[in-house]
Amino acid sequence: MINRNFRYIVLALFLVASLVACGGATKEPPALNVTLNALDIKWDTTNIDAVVGQTITITLVNTGVLDHNLVIEELGIDVSISPGATEVITFVVTEPGILDFICNEPGHFEAGMAGTITVSE
Prior knowledge:
By secondary structure, the chain is an alpha/beta fold.
């Protein structure tokens, strides 16, 4: 009986030590789903808040009559979208900071078609 209890104590201590050595269990942040509508020469959303390690899915919808694109240079994202079309982009940001997203169709960025993704710890 003592031998069995000793085994359980050793096992419990091992599990606690393993959790402490690993820094405890980490939990992934919930996924972030954003619909970003491209209107004629503006985005309907210009600020997106996210956290490091979060899976971000942007559903890009062109509700206007002009061609648009979504460019996030820091992530190498450049997706073109025709009027009436929808595209889905999924990515994970591993560093905190501010990422700019723009439409670089001629004249669109200059007209203010830009926004930011703020990624916090």
